[in-house]
Write a sequence for this structure.
């Protein structure tokens, strides 16, 4: 079929980007959708033919991703987040307001075709909650009045000004902050290569290429005690050292920018304000393991960030930091950004690789681990965006220096995206081992409105929740694990005394049921069963026997699912039932005691 | 494999020795310890999705999936602990949460793996009180239905279609709990309609259009028979109730085909009760075929046969035999023609040069014929001609599975396209019919080719010559002198080369082996050999004429020209097979007798039609294209028709009373098979194996002194049936032909599929 010239050009670029054609499938569908609003059979046929795929392969991939659609949406596709960070700050009320204003329900299109509405899962705007996206534009810190202004502008055919960068990233530095990877936040033109270079940019790469052997780079990484910032906390240097040397296959460096753990929005500022830091980290990683190709997998909702990253990549090529014979070292490295299409599961490393190969984002059987059999069956290092963004500083300052910033076995600093009921939600860079109470009360300005603290999600909604009396804890991987939770992804969510914990458990389970990939039985069936039970329970239909059943079903998933998503759904639920059992019992005696209960009926 | 390293691990306290690399689930199975699973399926890729096979492993904090866990030295595994039992119970509970409990009306009830697992490992009550998901049932084709709520997402169907069949018609739609299996076209399938997905489904999610809602499994009897369609001889277990076949499958993975069955074997049985089935003898009276009694019809045929024989001599009679009838029937027909009637005018539609192969191999045939299993185990396969995907589905399956499991290298020389070429390591694309020239070049380095073909041939030859223990498969393209070229090339390849001719129909090989040929006696004994003539003459109580008879095409020509006076046709439709342009000229025959199930183009012009029993309605043996012999059984009552065996036998008695030949006193197929075992080379098969459902390989072998075997051109050719046709019989397989793929001939006749949905 006849395609717009720009799309045709995009397709050509995408086709040249991967050793296996099918990898271009998801990006091609995403970009084609931009032009036509949806993916028609004709369009899919065209894409299938270009990629030598059959229709099953195309449609089953499409069906997996929530952003890909086979039916038209409105010219303005309104996506309102109601996940925990937004919910805690009025996301449900906002969604109800939008529904009322547009007169349409979830996944419906207005009669004129101007608007369509979708209630979406966490979009990575947690520190700007509540938030919504209009097509790919982010609007944050919303309330009904602000939303009305936005709709008026849209109706006038104007594009309301989206947030320039994520809310909460730019603020007066707290004295406790140790600025390493966020040092370019707020610097004018921070994303341009010139600015980056003026501020020590690409010096680490020069050092790594000219003064260090690959082994020395890995040693330095090991010394740094940098642990994976995606949530699992695996030592990065060790991961790199697992890649077999002297293997004839190509090797790959992947940046995991699928950031979608509810409550987490810390890769977004790194990507939008300092894309070169990531690029530099990836090239150094490539040098360390002998890889000549990297891909940065960025969640589909972050389209403007992908554009920023692609501009930065082009700049880096122009300056010779990417491509052939980098800085005269003889080392080659190519890099491309790759868009996701709406699937939390693709944040799991092996599912991400499947997705990057143009397939449904199902996780893979392990072992073998990616370091040996990864992307296209080749050795692969996959790290979180923040992990890779930390690499240049480590190479510049040395592993020992970096390690000294944190606590033993927990080197360096990390970004926290603090959201929920605090006075100063935002993104803060703090050393590993920072005290959680101080993080809440000092850095984030304490609980909003003088309310009492009830619960804390330390690092994304997969973590067991901490109660108010558990927050005197050092925020490092080991200490948080010791008290039965996880440091996680740095997405710290603060929950005040007015929050219904049953409602919170319900909302958390909605997310995991929505994002369960469906591969294994306990997660696929367990999350949905629990979602239905928690819905019923919160609406007042609970039975006494449901409380132990919720706990038991969660435990029946725990440790038995194919990938950690089942655990992620089980752990917060188990902790809520355990620590706030009284709130479940209260529900048995009437309706939810918290005002937010009225809102839940509208939400699903 | 003998020197494979062994490891010892502990299972439930018992030491288990197993080859290194064995999965714990498989090792446990060998010990008689069941580790339950849904998604695990031997031979297909691993999923670890159903989580039923979780076991405890010492030093591992979490339960491990036995289906992906490789047993290692010293590993300590427990599958009988409380924790493991609870995990299984919990998985079943999760599975049943959205699974409808419509077992009383579900086709799978009684043979459902989920039912069995629930019975053995599940909870005795349900704690799920929420609303279950519901989706409407979908009809993906007249043969395949999908009931999404019953689906447990084990992905077996997706894998067997992708990995096993290389068709890739199934995928997964939606996500999470809403995941469903989706067909490759919107709401429907465009595929080979093999039904493997139905067979492999552990629950009642995928059901068969021919079987659904018909019966309960325990109400049926099960009769394992070789399929009556193509030459591959797959075992198809007929499920029979009240003398009606309700289903065919091969769920117990018995037979040469293991778990494989194509659409013909699975759905092509309904011809047995087709409305157009001839159920009583028909005799032409005043130009019209009218029902007659068996006595009248038999008496009339005997009388008129004698008349023709008396007036014009025995050679005015021609006999055309069948590709579908049993070995015993073919043997009897041979005896009937040569001994009772006294003519060598006997032949059949030859679809591969079995006789030529036997002659070219000589006494070596015994060790040189490949079995179906050899095609799978061979390190390398050379395929010449034939679209095996369409024409020999089991052979294609064996090749694909070999490629998948142990990287069989497939070499192809072919003028036609075939999906099997996707598995090929080397492909020489010849001109149509150019396979012979390529074989000539391989053997004698003679002939010229265009540059790309030459280059491809050179590469293929070099690679082939480095192989050993190759299996060579060839279609009707290779026959006569070309076959001798091939055999001499085969002898140059290292190791034990094995060879297989690819014919068309269920007893194509048996017909040739039993000597339904103008110039060969049973077991390819030469008619020129007076000793062989005397040997069979003695058994048959008659002197066998020495001059070879007419080949089938010559008989047809002679019949149309009025030179032949009588044609006796058993289970064949020569008008169609030999593309007779003016079939009404058969009226010049004084007598045309046809045994058939249906009024084919030939039967319509007959003077007498005897209604014949189908292969599923009689006892006997069939020889597949690999020479493997299997018993077929009377699964259902033919309700009118008689077996060709009985017809020939009775007719011989009728003729005997008129003084023509000696009556055939072999009363049963068993008795005939005994005679075959004793007198046909290569058929001295172990009866225990046959009776036990085995498929011992025969090897009808020529003597070393046999002359070259060349048949007149035009007598050996493939009918080029594809997955939805089966000679004249296929037309009466209503279910098989009801699919759109069957009707959409361009779609399939060019295996280079045009539809982009199917690539």
């Amino acid at each position: 079929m006849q395609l717009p010239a720009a799309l045709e050009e995009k397709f050509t670029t995408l086709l040249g980007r991967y050793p296996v054609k099918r990898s271009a499938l998801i990006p091609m569908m995403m970009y084609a959708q931009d032009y036509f609003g949806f993916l028609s059979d004709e369009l899919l046929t065209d894409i299938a033919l270009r990629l030598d795929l059959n229709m099953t392969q195309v449609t089953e991939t499409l069906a997996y991703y929530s952003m890909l659609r086979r039916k038209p949406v409105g010219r303005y596709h309104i996506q309102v987040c109601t996940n925990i960070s937004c919910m805690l700050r009025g996301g449900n009320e906002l969604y109800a307001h939008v529904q009322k204003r547009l007169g349409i329900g979830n996944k419906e299109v207005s009669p004129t075709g101007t608007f369509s509405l979708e209630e979406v899962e966490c979009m990575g705007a947690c520190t700007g909650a509540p938030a919504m996206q209009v097509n790919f534009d982010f609007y944050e810190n919303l309330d009904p009045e602000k939303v009305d202004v936005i709709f008026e502008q849209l109706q006038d055919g104007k594009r309301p000004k989206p947030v320039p960068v994520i809310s909460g990233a730019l603020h007066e530095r707290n004295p406790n902050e140790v600025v390493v990877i966020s040092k370019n936040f707020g610097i004018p033109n921070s994303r341009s290569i010139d600015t980056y270079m003026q501020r020590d940019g690409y010096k680490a790469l020069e050092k790594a290429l000219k003064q260090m052997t690959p082994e020395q780079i890995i040693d330095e990484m090991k010394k740094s005690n940098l642990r994976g910032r995606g949530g699992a906390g695996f030592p990065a240097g060790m991961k790199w050292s697992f890649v077999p040397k002297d293997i004839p296959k190509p090797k790959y460096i992947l940046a995991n920018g699928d950031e979608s753990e509810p409550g987490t929005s810390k890769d977004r500022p790194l990507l939008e304000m300092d894309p070169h830091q990531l690029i530099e980290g990836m090239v150094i990683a490539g040098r360390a393991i002998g890889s000549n190709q990297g891909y940065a997998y960025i969640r589909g909702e972050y389209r403007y960030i992908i554009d920023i990253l692609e501009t930065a990549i082009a700049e880096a090529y122009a300056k010779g930091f990417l491509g052939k014979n980098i800085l005269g070292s003889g080392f080659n490295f190519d890099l491309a950004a790759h868009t996701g299409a709406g699937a939390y599961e693709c944040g799991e490393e092996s599912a991400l690789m499947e997705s990057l190969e143009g397939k449904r984002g199902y996780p893979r059987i392990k072992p073998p681990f990616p370091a040996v059999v990864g992307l296209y069956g080749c050795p692969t290092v996959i790290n979180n965006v923040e992990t890779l963004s930390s690499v240049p500083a480590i190479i510049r300052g040395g592993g020992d220096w970096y390690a000294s910033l944190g606590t033993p076995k927990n080197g360096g600093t990390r970004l926290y995206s603090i959201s929920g009921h605090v006075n100063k939600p935002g993104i803060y860079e703090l050393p590993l081992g920072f005290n959680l109470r101080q993080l809440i009360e000092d850095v984030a300005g304490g609980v909003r409105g003088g309310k009492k603290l009830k619960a804390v999600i330390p690092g994304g909604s997969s973590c067991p929740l901490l109660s108010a009396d558990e927050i005197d804890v050092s925020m490092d991987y080991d200490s948080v694990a010791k008290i039965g939770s996880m440091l996680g992804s740095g997405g710290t969510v603060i929950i005040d005394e007015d929050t219904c914990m049953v409602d919170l458990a319900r909302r958390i389970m909605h997310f995991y049921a929505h994002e369960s990939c469906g591969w294994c039985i306990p997660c696929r069936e367990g999350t949905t069963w629990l979602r239905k039970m928690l819905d019923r329970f919160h609406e007042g239909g609970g039975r006494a026997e449901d409380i132990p059943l919720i706990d038991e079903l969660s435990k029946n998933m725990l440790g038995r699912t194919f990938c950690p998503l089942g655990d992620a759904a089980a752990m917060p639920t188990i902790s809520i039932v355990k620590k706030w059992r009284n709130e479940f019992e209260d529900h048995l005696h009437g309706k939810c005691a918290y005002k937010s209960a009225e809102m839940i009926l509208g939400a699903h | 494999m003998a020197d494979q390293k062994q490891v010892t691990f502990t299972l439930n306290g018992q030491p288990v020795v197993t080859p290194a690399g064995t999965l714990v689930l498989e090792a446990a199975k060998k010990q008689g310890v069941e580790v339950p699973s849904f998604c695990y399926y031997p031979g297909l890729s691993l999923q670890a999705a159903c989580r039923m096979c979780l076991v405890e492993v010492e030093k591992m904090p979490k339960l491990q999936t036995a289906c992906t866990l490789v047993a290692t030295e010293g590993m300590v595994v427990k599958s009988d602990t409380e924790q493991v039992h609870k995990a299984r119970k919990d998985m079943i509970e999760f599975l049943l949460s959205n699974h409808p409990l419509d077992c009383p009306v579900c086709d799978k009830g009684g043979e459902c793996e989920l039912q069995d697992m629930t019975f053995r490992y599940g909870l005795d009550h349900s704690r799920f009180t929420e609303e279950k998901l519901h989706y409407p049932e979908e009809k993906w084709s007249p043969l395949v239905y999908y009931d999404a709520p019953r689906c447990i997402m084990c992905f077996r169907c997706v894998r067997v279609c992708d990995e096993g069949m290389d068709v890739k018609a199934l995928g997964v739609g939606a996500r999470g709990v809403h995941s469903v299996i989706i067909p490759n076209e919107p709401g429907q399938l465009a595929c080979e309609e093999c039904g493997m997905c139905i067979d492999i489904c552990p629950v009642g999610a995928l059901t068969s259009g021919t079987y659904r809602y018909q019966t309960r499994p325990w109400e049926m009897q099960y009769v394992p028979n070789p399929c009556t369609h193509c030459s591959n001889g797959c075992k198809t277990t007929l499920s029979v109730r009240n003398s009606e076949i309700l289903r065919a499958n091969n769920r117990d993975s018995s037979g040469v085909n293991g778990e494989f069955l194509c659409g013909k074997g699975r759905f092509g049985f309904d011809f047995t009760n087709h409305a157009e089935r001839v159920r009583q003898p028909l005799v032409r009276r005043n130009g019209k075929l009218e029902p007659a009694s068996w006595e009248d019809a038999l008496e009339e045929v005997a009388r008129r046969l004698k008349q023709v024989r008396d007036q014009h001599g025995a050679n005015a009679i021609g006999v055309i035999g069948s590709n579908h009838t049993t070995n015993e029937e073919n043997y009897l027909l041979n005896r009937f023609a040569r001994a009772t009637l006294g003519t060598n005018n006997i032949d059949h539609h030859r679809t591969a040069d079995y006789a030529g192969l036997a002659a070219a191999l000589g006494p070596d045939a015994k060790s040189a014929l490949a079995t179906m299993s050899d095609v799978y185990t061979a390190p390398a396969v050379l395929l010449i001609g034939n679209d095996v995907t369409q024409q020999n589905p089991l052979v294609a399956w064996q090749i694909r599975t070999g490629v998948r499991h142990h990287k069989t290298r497939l070499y192809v020389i072919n003028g036609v396209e075939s999906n099997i070429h996707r598995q090929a390591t080397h492909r020489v694309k010849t001109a149509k019919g150019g396979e012979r020239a390529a074989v000539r070049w391989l053997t004698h380095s003679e002939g010229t080719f265009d540059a790309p073909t030459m280059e491809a041939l050179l590469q293929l030859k070099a690679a082939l010559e480095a192989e050993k223990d190759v299996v060579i498969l060839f279609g009707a393209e290779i026959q006569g002198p070309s076959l001798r070229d091939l055999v001499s090339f085969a002898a140059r390849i290292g190791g034990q080369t094995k060879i297989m001719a690819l014919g068309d129909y269920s007893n194509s090989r048996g017909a040739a082996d039993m000597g339904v040929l103008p110039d060969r006696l049973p077991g390819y004994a030469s008619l020129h050999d007076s000793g062989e003539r005397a040997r069979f003459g003695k058994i048959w109580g008659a002197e066998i004429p020495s001059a070879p008879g007419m080949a089938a095409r010559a008989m047809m020509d002679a019949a149309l020209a009025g030179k032949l006076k009588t044609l006796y046709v058993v289970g064949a439709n020569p008008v169609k097979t030999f593309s007779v342009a003016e079939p009404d000229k058969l009226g010049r025959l004084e007598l045309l007798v046809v045994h058939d199930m249906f009024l084919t183009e030939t039967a319509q012009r007959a003077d007498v039609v005897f209604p014949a029993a189908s292969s599923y309605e009689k006892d006997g043996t069939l020889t597949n294209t690999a020479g493997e012999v299997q018993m077929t059984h009377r699964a259902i009552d033919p309700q009118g028709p008689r077996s060709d065996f009985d017809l020939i036998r009775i007719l011989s008695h009728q003729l005997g009373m008129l003084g023509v030949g000696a009556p055939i006193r072999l009363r049963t197929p068993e008795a005939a098979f005994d005679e075959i075992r004793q007198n046909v080379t290569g058929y001295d098969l172990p009866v225990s194996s046959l009776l036990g459902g085995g498929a011992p390989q025969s090897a009808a072998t020529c003597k070393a002194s046999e002359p070259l075997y060349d048949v007149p051109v035009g007598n050996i050719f493939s009918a080029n049936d594809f997955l939805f046709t089966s000679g004249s019989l296929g037309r009466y397989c209503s279910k098989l032909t009801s699919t759109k793929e069957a009707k959409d001939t361009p779609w399939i006749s060019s295996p280079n599929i045009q539809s982009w949905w199917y690539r």
Residues 746-759 of chain B have pLDDT under 50 and may be disordered. The first strand of chain B starts at residue 6 and ends at 11. Chain B is about 30% helix and 15% strand.
